[in-house]
Each structure stands twice: as C-alpha cells, then as structure tokens.
Amino acid sequence: MRHFPTLLALCLLAAAPAHAAPARTLTVYAASSLKDALDEVDAAYGKTGATVVVSYAASSVLARQIEQGAPAQVFISADSDWMDYLAARKLIAPASRRDLLSNNLALITPADSAASVKIGRDMPLAQALGSGRLAMAGPDVPAGRYGEAALKALRVWQLVRPKVVLGENVRAAMRFVSRGEAPLGIVYDTDAKVDPTVKIVGLFPAFSHPKIIYPAAATRRGAGPAATAYLKFLVGPQATAIFQRYGFKTLSR
User: Fold this and answer.
1) 136 plus 183 within the same structural domain
2) Structural domain that includes position 194
C-alpha cells in the first residue's frame, strides 16, 4: 500500500495525452476602426488553436498605454506616426514592422438625411452644416489628423473649425452622426460601411491628406513566435480576403 501514491501518479501521467500543450493567448492593441474586420480575422486565426485578446481604442491612446508598460504583444496603428512614436522609444521589434492596410476618408451623414456636398476645394461645407456640428476624431487620433489635413487642403478648415465636435476615436465621432447629434462627420469609409444608420456623402481625394497607412508590429516585450505567427497570418490570403471584404486596401504580401 505504501507504493499506492507513486503508482497512482504514474497511471495519471500515462493517461494524459502526450501532445497536450497550454493554450496560446496573444494580446493585441488595435485601432478602433479595425474592430469589425479584425474580429473576423481573429475568429479565423482562432481555428489554429490560438486565442487573441484585442483592446480597441484610438492609436494615440494605445501607443501611450504601451509606453507605460501595457502588456500588448502586437500593436496595429491607424497611422505611421504613432508606430514611429513607439519605435523612437525602442518599444517595438523593428524587423517585425510592416505596412498592413490602407483606407479612404469619407464624409458621412445620417442614413435618412438628404444632405449633399460635392467634395472639393472651397466646398460649401460650412453652409451644409448650418447650425449643426461636424463630427471628427480628436487631433491626436489618426482619423482626426487626416480629416483636418483634408479640410485644410480643400481650404475650408477655418470656416468649419468652430463647428467641429470631437470624438475620442473615429467610432465615437461616427456615433455623433448615427445618433443624429451631428449632421455630418468625417470617418474612414470602412467605418461607415458597417453602420447602416449612416451613409457616405463622398470620399476625400487622396491628394488632400497623407496616405492612410495601418502599420503592424510586435512590441519589444511581446516579440516571439506567437507574435510572428499572428503577423504572418494578417498578411496571408485568408486575412487579406476578410480585410478587403470590409473595404480595406491590403498592402503587405
């Protein structure tokens, strides 16, 4: 009987599957405009046996959280500036960085609105707003920067600036429009395409703002096989097809 515990332990070890391994969990910080598409991509990636946990917010917020020690393993920004911000502080793995996606900037209105504005230089945007507000993301947020640059290039920024209402991220700006609190807003066209309560009035011309780039990289603390495998999946055919279906333009191969 004194050998019973040892025999029991041996039996339990023999019964355990030889291939058992702990589940892989990856923590990703991603720009809020990616949510719908990236959720579907991550569901597909989950079939490989990995679990992806994503925090969505403005790229500026996420970059500062990573700077303060947040446990992100992969960061996907909505512009190069905030990835550069982390790179300058040696907080990403440089070799892992890749330009993943591009997007378009859109002027939107509530789905039931009859508002119509032809986008171009000196467009009558202020008149179209009337006493209403123009919803945009804040100036630290990539969508806000792109929007302000476009309005300046089209020579209407000074006229509409007093009418701007700022959201903490691009999805928050879109909610002002979807709830009817603002008659017009500036978001990515991929945001508008997933919200039936808004519609696209028009797209801002590419010359009016810096090219919209979504870079992805492993963080310095998260660099390793798990992050590498995930980043490889993001540029693979399955993820590419999903991103394109949501309206993103894929850049990496």
Assistant:
1) yes
2) 105-208
How many CA atoms within 13 Å lie on the side-chain side of 173?
35
What's this model's pTM, rounded to 2 decimal places?
Answer: 0.87
- The answer to whether residue 4 is domain-embedded is no
Residues 6 or more apart from 150 whose CB is under 8 A from it? 105, 186, 204, 208, 209
Residue 19 predicted with pLDDT over 90: no
Which one-letter amino acid corresponds to residue 226?
A: A
> What's the CATH code of the domain at 188?
3.40.190.10
Angle between helices 225-234 and 237-245 (to 10 degrees): 50
Three-state secondary structure readout of 72-92: CCEEECCCHHHHHHHHHCCCE
What sign does the CA torsion over 80, 150, 251, 101 have? positive
Residue 22 scores a pLDDT above 70: no
- The total of structural domains in the chain comes to 2
Residue 149 sits at φ, ψ, to 5 deg, of -60, -40
Residue 204 has pLDDT above 70, yes or no: yes
